[in-house]
Amino acid sequence: MRKPALLLLHSPASLNWFSGTFVSARGVRPERVAPRYPIWTKSLHRHGMSSYSGGDRGGRGRGGGGRGAYYKNKYGGGGRNSGDARDRGPLGGNGNLGDNHRARTSTNGGTFQDLKQLLQHIDGRQYPAYHDLETAPNTGWVHPEGFVLQVGRAQADPFAPPTRCRVTLPPSVSRISNSFYTNATRRMATGDFLLRRLYGNCKRVGADHSLRSSSGGKGGWSGPKGGDVQVLEPTQNVIEQSAVQVDEQGNILCQITINLPAKGRSIMGHAAHEIMDAVLPQLISDSLMFTSMNLDSIRTHIESVEDQAWLQQQLDTAGLVSFVRNGAILPRVSGVEDRPMAGSVVAFKSPPSLQKEFTLPISGVVVQGMGIRKGVTLICGGGFHGKSTLLQAIQSG
């Protein structure tokens, strides 16, 4: 019986499959997804109601709310027959914003005590008042421990995408060792280690749970919502990413999102202060401060990534396009998961004719595995024998 086969066409790119972990030589930047119009507003429009009525003027006319008003409040600007948008209010009115709809201006930040007073001041007001938290470039809210919180564009609505924030820790605050950022590979490896630590701690303390989920989903539209801190989930790839970075000066730059809490459309200032002044500093202290972590574990992580980078550089000289280490676990948990499958899984073993051996320079470990030569390679096997799994492993690097 003829066995099915896969034909692998590859180029001499430096790819590698190492210790059952996906490691890519190139970074992949996530696509920016255009903001979606909230689903709940569509139901309101079917019944002739406005999801954003602009105060006590309802409907979808020129002076009221409706779909256009939602986007004007969120993005600004006018439209057809609207005149100069700079002379109009965010809801299409005459520019008289009142207390609930004021012009957005970025502040120069201040101390966390100033931030507390600001959140107490806007407590109970309409949600757009959260724009007062926004900070101008090169400014921010300075914590007593020394890190700086910068707030980008604050969300305009509880159902809008969460607020983007950046936390900056200078080396004098994080106590990072100079040896952890002396070259690009070490900076990437250190950032990857810190991201995994931050994500794990965020899940452990439940900071990623919203007020709605904590209350069992009770309260409906007028109930509490938001209040969760989100961090980019790391994958099996050790790649350049923007969630946690270490620059050439040793500054740690961390980007997170905070879903600012609200009850209905009213600001929950005290809950927001709890997140920014208690939850966030604890996450930073546990995850990004080097005085709170095992330095041997981060050194091992950096050495592994450096060995991996060295191994990738050897492939072209050895006439290979890929290397699959013996003992690697190729099957994944599922088709949409990149984590290796657990349990009784058959580990990979190279055929003797394709086996190669390398001595890693940093750890001194001798690794053996299958080297795939430049050219055309045919992968043969029966159904569910792992042909696609091997191909995906090679493709992922």
From TrEMBL:
Residues 296-397 form the ATPase of the ABC class C-terminal domain. InterPro entries: ABC_ATPase_C, ABC_ATPase_put, ABC_N. Residues 47-109 are annotated as: Disordered. Transmembrane segments: none annotated. Residues 113-289 form the ATPase of the ABC class N-terminal domain. This is Uncharacterized protein. It comes from Phaeodactylum tricornutum.
